[in-house]
Specification:
The structure holds two protein chains of two kinds. Chain A is an alpha/beta fold. Chain A has a domain of 174 residues: 3-Layer(aba) Sandwich (Rossmann fold). Chain A is built from ten helices and ten strands. Chain A is globular. The relative contact order of chain A is 0.18. Chain B is extended. The relative contact order of chain B is 0.11. Chain B contains 16 helices and three strands. By secondary structure, chain B is mainly alpha-helical. Chain B has two domains: 123 residues, no CATH class; 218 residues, MetI-like fold (Orthogonal Bundle), CATH 1.10.3720. Classes of the chains: A alpha/beta, B mainly alpha. Chains A and B meet through helix 2, helix 3 and helix 6 of A and helix 12 and helix 13 of B. The structure holds adenosine-5'-diphosphate and magnesium ion (MG).
């Protein structure tokens, strides 16, 4: 059983300081001079950001400051919003994701996403995880597909809980399990980057602790960008933190540094609870 | 201390009264509409129910072996032997007028009843057998109590002589009232006692089949395109407004359109379920599109985001996830649209499905009529016997409607994900 399921949740809130050092320092995702417009309204102003591989970066800031907007730029989810226009350059492994030759489908395979509200498909647990590999043709046989599903569910820490009921609907799971199912679904297509938009805001504290621990484990294989409105969460799971305010990226750096010695006054005000 | 009990006068009491009054109005409205419904269904049932019964006369008849060939029964005429038998039953009938009245006891189609019985059982040739044949509609009406015997003979359609014969036959147990299977299994006829709705039911069913085959795929695809793919701009809004307007166009206009396009331009066969179904498809298309769009819109956006986030294309997202989730709503909308089409008469009149057709159609290119048109035709007939048939056909139409609505409910229950 997971050690974080204890009813007090004390362990869960402990800082995992041993994981604070990034394992690899090469940059995987970078944003340069990114401006985003929704029609006439500008949502992001000149954002510059470098994400290192195998690390967790959290985006914090008051509601409406453009965190989700930036996140959705990374896998071009903003394409589906007709009014949304993204300027500047975003590079994944050195390739411009807005290049005409880029296939959005492969981009989204490389950059997966987990949403605020758990949104499993109204299909079986198995189908939920198998859907991505199926449409990307990642499994050559049903045997291979089953292996991918099991591996993904194991990585998401859900296998033991659902292995006997893979045919049951994914929507019948608890909120926390549903969110881990969504994470399993995202990692089933072997992404490099996983974007998470407030993945715990609809979960109770115990489920939150489990997902947080999972994020920490996933760092070994993936690069994670997480939007969160909880500063404690940012401190617990991330190595880098970016603070946003009114569409500007105010500060970006080591999480410890941001929370202990913020350089900007606005960051200081936000983490001490004066703006939010 | 605050007082939470009702106080006399003041704002609270007034509010209470208004609320009470509103509830009373609501209940009156519901009771009124229920009363109308009960009166309508009740009166139709009362009038139509007797049509499911038909009186029969037992006639003992000899089938002479030397006159009938086992292999040519289809074209044999039994009418002269029937008349001979009837004359033999009443030897004292001498005048032409009396004979005519005697023959009018039985349906003018009685010879076919006998023929069919002999075809079904050729052993009867050369033997004497008791045949049960239909009474004529006038006699049937009299037996059902629709004729006032106190009227002078000249003012009713049945003579004193016939009344006497019937009384005698009844005494001899030669008259029986049976369930009228012909009404449910036969086609139309000039004789009310012989007429059935089955031809019209099949005509309606075939038309609806064509309507479904055409309108459902087109309607669903149009809705999917408009809802999921089309960019929302001025042109798509114009489309939307026009589709909504199309739903309100009087159905006879669609009939005229069908006449001009399907019959005159494409030269499709007149009076057929094929053309009827096409016209009904035109008519139900807007309904299906509107219902389908509503059920597509009801699919949570988070499902689309999940699929797109995984790298599914727009088409994959739509057809793997969104359309299956919207399907129950789409089917329900379609069936309700078709139920509406089932009751349409005017467009079918325009394309000639109003002809008198005896044979039950077997394909979509056979000439046919439809249930509401059959009702219209019978309601227009002067014979007393068609009056009850009209109401009975309405009962059948209502049953058809109830069945379709039931199908919609069952389909929705079946397809609806229980998770
Ligand atoms: N689809 C959209 N259309 C128009 N404006 C939007 C849309 N999505 C977000 N915005 C606007 O962009 C700004 C940033 O939003 P968002 O990125 O969702 O903020 P956050 O996630 O930080 O709360 C907000 O002012 C919001 O109103
Ligand atoms: Mg957000």
């Amino acid at each position: 059983m997971n050690k974080y399921t204890n009813p007090n949740g004390e362990l869960a809130l402990k800082k995992r300081s041993i994981n604070k050092q990034p394992m690899d320092n090469h940059s995987i995702l970078s944003a340069k001079n990114v401006d985003v417009f929704y029609g006439e309204k500008q949502a992001l102003f000149d954002v510059n950001l470098e994400l290192t591989a195998n690390s967790v970066t959290s985006l914090i800031g008051p509601s409406g400051c453009g965190k989700s907007t930036l996140l959705r730029c990374f896998n071009r989810m903003n394409d589906v919003i007709s009014t949304c226009k993204v300027m500047g350059s975003i590079k994944l492994d050195g390739q411009d994701i807005h290049d005409k030759k880029v296939d959005v489908v492969s981009l989204r395979q490389k950059v997966g996403m987990v949403f605020q509200k758990p949104n499993p498909f109204p299909k079986s647990i198995f189908e939920n995880v198998a859907y991505g590999p199926k449409i990307h043709g990642l499994a050559k046989s049903s045997r291979e597909l089953e292996e991918i599903v099991e591996k993904s569910l194991r990585r998401a820490g859900l296998w033991e809980e659902v292995k006997d009921r893979l045919e049951q609907p994914g929507t019948g799971l608890s909120g926390g399990q549903q969110q881990r199912l969504c994470i399993a679904r995202a990692i089933a297509v072997s992404p490099e980057v996983i974007l998470m938009d407030e993945p715990c805001s609809a979960l109770d504290p115990i489920a939150t602790a489990i997902v947080e621990e999972l994020i920490d484990e996933l760092r070994e294989k993936y690069t994670i960008v997480i939007v969160t409105h909880s500063m404690q969460q940012a401190a617990r799971v991330s190595q880098q933190t970016a603070f946003f305010h009114l569409g500007y990226m105010v500060e970006f750096g080591e999480t410890d540094a941001i929370f202990t010695t913020p350089k900007d006054e606005r960051t200081q005000n936000y983490i001490t609870g004066r703006i939010g | 201390m605050t007082n939470i009990f009702k106080v006399r006068g003041g704002n609270n009491l007034k509010r209470h009264k208004v609320e009470k009054r509103f509830r009373v109005y609501g209940m009156i409205a519901i009771a009124t509409s229920l009363a109308f419904l009960v009166i309508m269904v009740g009166s139709i049932t009362l009038r139509g129910a007797p049509a499911f019964k038909q009186s029969f006369i037992k006639i003992e008849m000899h089938i002479p072996a030397e006159k009938f060939n086992k292999n040519a029964l289809q074209n044999s005429r039994f009418v002269s032997y029937l008349k001979e038998t009837l004359r033999a039953m009443y030897p004292d009938v001498k005048t032409r007028k009396d004979k005519k009245q005697l023959f009018r006891l039985v349906s003018s189609n009685a010879e076919y009843t006998i023929r069919d019985a002999v075809i079904a059982n050729p052993e009867l040739i050369g033997k004497t057998h008791n045949f049960w044949v239909r009474t004529s509609s006038d006699i049937d009406m009299y037996l059902k109590g629709y004729v006032d015997e106190n009227l002078p003979q000249s003012e009713r359609r049945i003579s004193d002589q016939q009344v006497k014969w019937i009384a005698d036959l009844k005494k001899a147990n030669r008259i029986e009232v049976r369930f009228n299977t012909q009404f449910l299994t036969g086609g139309d006829s000039r004789e009310p006692e012989q007429a059935g709705v089955f031809g019209a039911v099949i005509g309606s069913a075939l038309s609806l089949f064509v309507c479904f085959i055409i309108a459902f795929p087109i309607g669903v695809l149009a809705a999917v395109y408009l809802e999921e793919f089309a960019t929302k701009n001025k042109i798509s809004r114009i489309f939307e407004v026009n589709i909504n307007n199309l739903a309100a166009v009087p159905s006879i206009v669609f009939g005229l359109l069908g006449l001009a396009i399907f019959l005159n331009f494409f030269g499709l066969p007149r009076s057929t379920p094929l053309v009827g179904g096409l016209v009904l498809a035109l008519m139900t298309l807007p309904t299906i599109i509107i219902a389908s769009r509503a059920s597509l819109r009801a699919v949570p956006p988070s499902i689309r985001e999940a699929a797109i986030g995984l790298g599914a294309s727009k088409v994959q997202t739509t057809f793997h996830h969104v359309v299956p989730l919207a399907m129950p709503g789409m089917l329900t909308g379609t069936i309700l649209g078709m139920a509406q089409a089932l009751g349409e008469t005017a467009p079918l009149l325009m394309i000639g499905m109003v002809a008198f057709i005896v044979d039950v159609p077997t394909s979509i290119t056979d000439a046919a009529t439809a249930l509401p048109v059959q009702i219209f035709l019978w309601a227009d007939s002067p014979e007393r016997g068609f009056m009850e048939k009209t109401s009975a056909a309405i009962i059948v139409l209502l049953m058809f409607l109830v069945l379709m609505n039931l199908a919609a409910i069952i389909l929705r229950r079946r397809l609806e994900r229980r998770w």
